């Protein structure tokens, strides 16, 4: 059932929703319309999130500090998100590709190597 | 190297490149199963790490064992499904997932002997980490091929007369222990482990007891029994309790096999007990249904046979070129109401090299171990018996088979001829002789002496209720007066004519002076 709804939802992202609905009614799957619509909205939100590049910084002022490195990594047009827990540095994420130059990850890796 | 120096060295070597890495993102979490988008190049059984450090302070992320690991089990078109091996409540939708590029493995070293570990190799006996160097042994491994093996010809003694005489097990064999609940299956396995303390240290098998889906109290009790018997010094317990998630129950026997293979590759003999594979099959079914794999017969996945066949095929007797080590498996299966024709029991029966049937009726009648020798078999047979045992064990099976045939007949016949009465009395005496108390395995040299005496007729005329006392008194007499006989049989593993003559004289002397 989940797979069917996901397939219909993916079709809705590619084709006109009315056409997809008509096709579902024809196949006797009209009752799944609301769930399919919810799933399609979810997929649409996710796919945007997946493709839009995001750069995560510890504070607003780090944007200037790391601007050169961020631009070198292809994140010049990326949306900025602030997460103080990364301590410093930056994380650039685009889709399923990630460049992690945060101080937290570096310190965490150092800690694991030293205590191993 | 001090910690400061280590830190300085690591800081000097810190990489400043900005190379992108492929990561996945959790798209759904449910019942310990995680759907991950993005890491489509992941391998089957690859470990992935969930980035639980996101949003948490540095101090929180430095807590020990804070990493949550997943195991990739489904490779689908747009996503992979992984099972969480740990606290699944910490995994959230949108979390970043990193590939490790490594297949699941367990750290094994000499220090794992005598310890209680989880299927992932973490110690759970409260005695700290495993000491010494460890090697990452793969949980899943292809079994050794035909040419890498040699024939099974060395016995592994269980200490149970009925098994060692009539259903002998060899090193490298798979012998199934099957029966209903409460028939003594675990007891047979534990007695086998305890009996290994009578083996010389150089040839003593290392033992691994894999507890799958058992109550923690039962596992703790088993550990106590083994400690009291002095068996924990050569035994490792791998425990995945009833409260653990089904992926850990699924991995437990494979972890036990991986530990066994580490020692087998070093030329040692290993005994692995899987207690029990019925619970293992149920856990695998649960995991497969959650992974949306199509259910087959009794809702088990289609590869349930392969699950057990690839596990048990890892038992082997290696060739001399590979060190000559062996891995003997004693899988346990629990039946329901004696139904050995059910799905999982028939699967495992067809995989193993023999089975030991334990029956509730026999157990309730007081025949313990409740072994049905008529339908129990060892396909390796006398190749896995010492010469001494072969000489004394040949007659017993026939005696008991004839006794079983007559047992039903004698309830109705009131007037039996002398020959029939003799066979019935002999059968009853042998049945009584083969009974053994729990936790009381007998070394093989004592078994040989006991059976030799029984074959020579020293039980004739002795009431059945006195047979066990007769045996105990006779063995004490031999230990006292003819200890060299026992040591000769132990070292030579044969019954020479000289030893037989000594024993005949000893039996005659004992009978003359014996009063019950």
Automatic annotation (TrEMBL), chain A:
It comes from the Bacteria. This is ATP synthase subunit delta. It comes from Candidatus Kaiserbacteria bacterium RIFCSPHIGHO2_02_FULL_50_50.
UniProtKB/TrEMBL annotation, chain B:
It is an enzyme of class 7 (translocase). The record marks 376 as: Required for activity. Gene3D superfamilies: 2.40.30.20, ATP synthase alpha/beta chain, C-terminal domain, P-loop containing nucleotide triphosphate hydrolases. It is found in: Cell membrane; Membrane. ATP binds at residues 179-186. Its EC number is 7.1.2.2. It comes from the Bacteria. Residues 385-510 form the ATP synthase alpha subunit C-terminal domain. It is a peripheral membrane protein. SUPFAM superfamilies: C-terminal domain of alpha and beta subunits of F1 ATP synthase (SSF47917), N-terminal domain of alpha and beta subunits of F1 ATP synthase (SSF50615), P-loop containing nucleoside triphosphate hydrolases (SSF52540). It catalyses: ATP + H2O + 4 H(+)(in) = ADP + phosphate + 5 H(+)(out). Keywords: ATP synthesis, ATP-binding, Cell membrane, CF(1), Hydrogen ion transport, Ion transport, Membrane, Nucleotide-binding, Translocase, Transport. Residues 159-378 form the ATPase F1/V1/A1 complex alpha/beta subunit nucleotide-binding domain. One of its GO terms (cellular component) is proton-transporting ATP synthase complex. The keyword Ion transport applies. Pfam families: ATP-synt_ab, ATP-synt_ab_C, ATP-synt_ab_N. Belongs to the ATPase alpha/beta chains family. PANTHER family: ATP SYNTHASE SUBUNIT ALPHA, MITOCHONDRIAL. Produces ATP from ADP in the presence of a proton gradient across the membrane. The alpha chain is a regulatory subunit. This is ATP synthase subunit alpha.
């Amino acid at each position: 059932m989940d797979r069917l709804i996901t397939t219909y939802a993916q079709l809705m992202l590619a084709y006109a929703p009315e056409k997809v609905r008509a096709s579902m009614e024809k196949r006797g799957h009209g009752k799944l319309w609301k769930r399919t619509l919810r799933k399609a909205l979810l997929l649409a939100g996710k796919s945007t999130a997946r493709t839009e590049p995001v750069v995560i910084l510890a504070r607003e002022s780090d944007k200037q500090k790391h601007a050169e490195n961020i631009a070198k990594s292809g994140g010049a047009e990326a949306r900025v998100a602030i997460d103080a827990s990364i301590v410093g540095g930056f994380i650039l994420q685009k889709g399923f590709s990630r460049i992690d130059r945060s101080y937290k990850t570096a310190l965490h890796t150092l800690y694991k190597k030293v205590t191993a | 190297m001090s910690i400061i120096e280590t830190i300085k060295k690591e800081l000097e070597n810190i990489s400043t490149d900005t190379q992108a890495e492929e990561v996945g993102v959790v798209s759904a979490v449910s019942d310990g199963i995680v759907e991950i988008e993005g890491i489509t190049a992941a391998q089957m059984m690859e470990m992935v790490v969930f980035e639980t450090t996101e949003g948490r302070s540095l101090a929180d992320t430095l807590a020990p064992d804070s990493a949550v690991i997943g195991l990739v089990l489904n490779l689908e078109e747009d996503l992979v499904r992984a099972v969480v091996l740990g606290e699944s409540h910490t995994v959230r939708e949108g979390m970043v997932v990193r590939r490790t590029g490594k297949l699941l493995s367990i750290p094994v070293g000499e220090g794992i002997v005598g310890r209680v570990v989880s299927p992932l190799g973490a110690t759970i006996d409260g005695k700290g980490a495993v000491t010494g160097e460890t090697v990452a042994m793969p949980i899943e491994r292809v079994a050794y091929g035909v040419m890498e093996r040699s024939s099974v010809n060395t016995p592994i003694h269980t200490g149970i007369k009925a098994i060692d005489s009539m259903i002998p097990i060899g090193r490298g064999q798979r012998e199934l222990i099957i029966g209903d609940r409460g028939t003594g299956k675990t007891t047979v396995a534990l007695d086998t482990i305890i009996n290994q303390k009578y083996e010389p240290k150089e040839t003593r098998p290392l033992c691994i007891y894999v507890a799958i889906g058992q109550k923690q109290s039962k596992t703790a009790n088993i550990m106590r029994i083994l400690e009291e018997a002095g068996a924990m010094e050569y035994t490792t317990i791998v425990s995945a309790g009833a409260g653990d998630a089904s992926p850990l129950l699924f991995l437990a026997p494979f972890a036990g096999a991986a530990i066994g293979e580490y020692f087998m590759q070093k030329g040692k003999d290993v005994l692995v007990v899987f207690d029990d594979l019925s619970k293992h099959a149920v856990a695998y079914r649960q995991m497969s249904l959650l992974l949306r794999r199509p259910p087959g017969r009794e809702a088990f996945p289609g590869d349930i046979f392969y699950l057990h066949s690839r596990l048990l095929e890892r038992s082997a007797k290696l060739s001399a070129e590979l060190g000559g080590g062996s891995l003997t498996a004693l899988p346990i299966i629990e039946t329901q109401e004696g139904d050995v024709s059910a799905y999982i029991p028939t699967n495992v029966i067809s995989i193993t090299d023999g089975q030991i049937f334990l029956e509730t009726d026999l157990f309730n009648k007081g025949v313990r171990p409740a072994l049905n020798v008529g339908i129990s078999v060892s396909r390796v047979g006398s190749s896995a018996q010492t010469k001494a045992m072969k000489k004394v064990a040949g007659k017993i099976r026939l005696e008991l088979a004839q006794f079983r045939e007559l047992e039903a007949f004698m309830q109705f016949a009131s007037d039996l001829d002398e020959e029939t009465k003799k066979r019935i009395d002999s059968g009853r005496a042998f049945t009584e002789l083969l009974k053994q108390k729990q936790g009381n395995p007998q070394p093989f040299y004592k078994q040989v002496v006991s059976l030799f005496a029984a074959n020579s007729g020293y039980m004739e005329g002795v009431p059945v209720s006195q047979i066990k006392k007769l045996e105990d008194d006779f063995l004490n007499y031999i230990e006292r007066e003819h200890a060299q006989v026992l040591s000769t049989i132990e070292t030579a593993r044969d019954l020479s004519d000289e030893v037989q003559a000594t024993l005949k004289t000893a039996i005659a002397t004992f009978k003359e002076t014996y009063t019950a």
